[in-house]
Amino acid sequence: MIGFLVQRLIGTIPVLLLVSLTVFSLMHLIPGDPVQVMAGEVQDPETLARLRADLGLDRPLYVQYAAWLGNAVRGDLGKSIRTREPVTDVVLQRLRPTLQLSAIAMLLAGVVAFPAGILSATRRNSRIDAIATAFALLGVSMPNFLVGLLLIFAFSMKLGWLPTSGYVDIFADPIAGLRSLALPAITLGMALTAVIMRMTRSSLLESLSQDYVRTARAKGLVERRVVIRHGLRNALLPIVTVVGLQVGNLLAGAVITEYIFAIPGIGRLIVDSVFARDYPVMQGVVLLSVIGFIASNLVADLLYASLDPRIRLS
């Protein structure tokens, strides 16, 4: 297990290098000049040239990339062009709301998706199966911004139950924090719930059709034990794969969700950085996202080994 973990960690190094190079190149292809964004109405050529030199933007791109990469290896992601704060501090300040939002969205998805998927598979072609399938199709089809606007209209403007926007730290005020994150979490978790539900249903249906399930039923085992112990356990591998991939995709959905609900998280930071052409912050956020995506897939691989003895023994 340790050898497998070390091998996977070593394999992430070229991935991070390739992603950092790609992101760095794409960032500088975005139209606009961060120096002119900073200068505002000041268009004096000497002032602009001095700002560009202070920020190191007057050097060739390969020199800028080599300097940034060398500093990143040492844990220094540079300073924000917009605020001149260290990128690490800026990202860590915005990471807390995003982690809380993502955790609640994942919790809601798990609470809804797994029981619904199991019921849908064990009661195939029933009314429950039809409702679950329709919900899954709706969740996959509707974009985040539309779901968010509909929830605001229904639960905030019409019913007045929840706030339309804003963020309160859960650890500072649990009740107000949950109220502020309820609608964003439902918005972010709806597509996630639909994907996990569909995969749970299809994987469990395939598992329940296998010979070992028929043998367990022939032995007279209780149906609940057959489904949970023999069916669901063997159906978990593809479900774990999907969950691992969806955790990495939560940030993409958080970009729109956080902007709609005015949550000061990583997603909103990305949008603000793009508008300000803040290259160091954009690179730092993307690098953090890639590391999170790799970590979620690494955890999924480790779960494979615990669920399937064949993987552990190999």
Jot down its keywords.
single chain, 314 residues, mainly alpha, MetI-like fold, 13 helices, globular
Q: Can you describe what's shown?
A:
By secondary structure, this protein is mainly α. The chain has two domains: 72 residues, no CATH class; 221 residues, MetI-like fold. Helices cover 79% and strands 0% of the residues. The chain contains 13 helices and no strands. Helix 5 packs antiparallel against helix 10. The chain starts with a helix and ends with a helix. The mean pLDDT is 79.
Helix-strand topology string: HHHHHHHHHHHHH
Largest sheet: none
The chain-level mean pLDDT equals 79
What is the highest CATH level, the class of the largest domain? Mainly Alpha
Care to give the gist of this entry?
The protein has helices at 2-27, 34-39, 45-55, 61-73, 87-122, 127-141, 144-158, 174-208, 211-218, 223-260, 266-276, 279-307, 309-313. With 314 residues, it is an all-alpha fold. Helix 9 (211-218) crosses helix 10 and helix 11 (266-276) packs antiparallel against helix 12.
